[in-house]
Amino acid sequence: YLVDKRKNNYKIYNKKLFIDKVEFESLHQDLIQAINNEDLFLEFQPKVNTYSERIVSFEALIRWNHCNKGIIQPDEFISIAEKTGMIKKIGVWVLDQTFKQLEEWEKIGFDDIVISINMSEIELNDPNIIKIIKKISSSYSIANKKIEFEITERSFKEVSTDVMNELKRMGFLISLDDFGTGYSSLSYFGKSPFDLLKLDKIFIDNIYKEKSRLIVESVINLAHKFDVKVIAEGVETKEQLEILRKIECDYIQGYYFYKPMSASKITVILNNLKKNSST
Ligand code: C2E
Ligand code: MG
Ligand code: MG
Ligand code: MG
């Protein structure tokens, strides 16, 4: 099923897959192996400043190199990992890898990089989550402020404010992912400790339409009043970029600028940018 889907190049965005019990169990078993066999890997997608177009940070996105199904995208296995609790193990791995990557980039002179990672409510509701994060953090010489936790609007309301506040206190950045797709409440702005709001691609897809543009513009204005920066997800065209510039969206993420890439490709890009800026 997964293979056929890829053959037809059918791309799902932000949707949970429907699979039957047998497929679920077989993928679950494969996923246990995947962690042990180091078949999971991260790609990094740059985020840029809307006006300077300079890279400001990266989002780490997990992939699974399945032994006979090829590369499996997170939309196809994260929900399985969440339902089986395996997401906790995966989350630890992602955080550890991210610290490791930051350390590697720092070693070769890129010391002002921020990486965001996605965290589901299942990970954040683990009663030991703060202890776990502290332990990983203490084994690297990287400041916590270089890591941002992306939490979807849907997950956000399921997570205790104590955990969120503690993450902030520890220096981590927090962003509200897929904004606009949950049951948004404007009261979030007054009391929640997030630094960045990620506008869901669905609004960007429709930004040519007057109504969508007005919603996005109002959200940006409101966010700015609360000192929250806004990033647009899934920007694919110049026209979208130009509209987002006019309505003062701070950052852009999307195929128009960069797709998610391997760490080594990112290193090449960073080196080229450095060369160009020093000549
Ligand atoms: P997300 O956090 O909202 O990530 C954005 C998704 O949009 C990514 O899909 C990214 O590759 C894709 N994207 C970025 N720019 C564009 C664009 O211009 N056009 C289109 N069509 N797509 C674009 P991806 O990598 O397949 O990840 C899907 C979701 O899986 C993520 O949504 C996130 O919720 C989840 N996820 C990914 N990695 C992790 C992880 O390490 N842990 C957890 N818990 N969830 C993860
Ligand atoms: Mg998403
Ligand atoms: Mg995200
Ligand atoms: Mg998102």
TrEMBL record:
Organism, scientific name: Halanaerobium saccharolyticum subsp. saccharolyticum DSM 6643
Single GO molecular function: cyclic-guanylate-specific phosphodiesterase activity
Identification of the protein by name: Diguanylate cyclase/phosphodiesterase (GGDEF & EAL domains) with PAS/PAC sensor(S)
Transmembrane segment boundaries: none
Residue span relative to the full protein: 168 to 446 of 446
Sequence ranges assigned to domain EAL in this UniProt record: 24-274
